[in-house]
Amino acid sequence: MRLSELSRAAGLSPTTVKWYLRIGLLHRGQPTAVNQARYDDSHLRRLRLIRALIEVGGLSTDEVGDLIAAIDDPHRSIQNILAHAHRASAASAGTKAAASAAPIDDYIRHRGWRVRADSPARRDLAAVLDAIAALRPQPASGAAGVSAEVTTPDTTTPDAVYSLLDPYADAVEPLAAAEIANTPADLPRDLLVERVVAGTILLERAIAALRRLAQEHHATKRYGDPKAPADTP
Amino acid sequence: MRLSELSRAAGLSPTTVKWYLRIGLLHRGQPTAVNQARYDDSHLRRLRLIRALIEVGGLSTDEVGDLIAAIDDPHRSIQNILAHAHRASAASAGTKAAASAAPIDDYIRHRGWRVRADSPARRDLAAVLDAIAALRPQPASGAAGVSAEVTTPDTTTPDAVYSLLDPYADAVEPLAAAEIANTPADLPRDLLVERVVAGTILLERAIAALRRLAQEHHATKRYGDPKAPADTP
């Protein structure tokens, strides 16, 4: 197909597709004339992957570029690409805080997980624990006589971290195990990679959305049905 | 405390704190002299909340501003603030795609959930389903003889959507129910609000990080331990 047809099929403007070609996110087509090329199904699939990563995954074009480079390198292992997908996804969560690593090292031992020392998910989790600890009222301040226990989860001891995180880890670990187990190892590499990337980044958004819908449902059950629209007092 | 002490305690530069005062993210201190004011624990707590939302939650200062305005409005219900936290969090996921709503309406009926028609989580979930559908190879293209079933999840029928999403919804719904049930209703409002916001946005990052760690662990179990660092082929 021609560039105009490719753009239309991918739901993108020709300008955007030309830009992706220029910066190397999309591989070149088969030249047919000066300034003309023919594109095939592999181009359409790649554009749909890029669109999903940017529009749903929230990645920047730079992050997508790094991930595409890993995908296109035939020497990369599937785990290496998974690590890249994790890194792109973690960076987009905006985790810039220098976070304390020791409680996370302990927690990963507690779960019996084998994960790389430089996994970005460690840093993400450490940043969350640090943020929760910072929000917890100091005992000295005594915040209007309210004890800290009822307001912000305790993260000051290993046991407190286990109590906070274990229900979440227990819920997601069987899902993650099934995701890995259900990936057919004999797929052609490009399809395998798409599946891993889609499974990692897109389903992460789905899980977050499902949790928010369930929170809203249970809040409505507890506090009643708010008749007024959300922006009316 | 003075502005310099407040900044140090919050781990922010005085310039940043002054900027938050100027744009109204942080409430003014008690004036003590021309160009001097005294700040208290409420300022420190607010700065820590802002920092957590920006650095860990990945929200923009505009999104934090909207959320703070909702928090500071004494007429807002807890559900209304939850809705604002959801909206801020969803917008930061970069969901701009026009997504089809019908499969999500059906799925929410299937779960028996009562959620508002304008919940941003609906749009997030619809965008994920659309992206997965776009990545699925067309039967006509026949992608090297590989059947579509083994590559990308099916989302073309209600039953296929249930099969894809139910394991995730089953895993997160009890957690969401416990989060709502464990929120003490008689807390002072500012602490209640912090807890809801922290529970919604920070734990969402924690869940994503735990899933990625568990994925990495199970990938290592399946494919072996990659000795080489992630960036070496």
TrEMBL record, chains A, B:
<dbReference type="InterPro" id="IPR009061">
    <property type="entry name" value="DNA-bd_dom_put_sf"/>
</dbReference>
<dbReference type="GO" id="GO:0003677">
    <property type="term" value="F:DNA binding"/>
</dbReference>
<protein>
    <submittedName>
        <fullName>MerR family transcriptional regulator</fullName>
    </submittedName>
</protein>
<dbReference type="InterPro" id="IPR047057">
    <property type="entry name" value="MerR_fam"/>
</dbReference>
<keyword id="KW-0805">Transcription regulation</keyword>
<dbReference type="Pfam" id="PF13411">
    <property type="entry name" value="MerR_1"/>
</dbReference>
<feature type="domain" description="HTH merR-type">
    <location>
        <begin position="1"/>
        <end position="70"/>
    </location>
</feature>
<dbReference type="GO" id="GO:0003700">
    <property type="term" value="F:DNA-binding transcription factor activity"/>
</dbReference>
<keyword id="KW-0678">Repressor</keyword>
<dbReference type="InterPro" id="IPR000551">
    <property type="entry name" value="MerR-type_HTH_dom"/>
</dbReference>
<keyword id="KW-0238">DNA-binding</keyword>
<keyword id="KW-0804">Transcription</keyword>
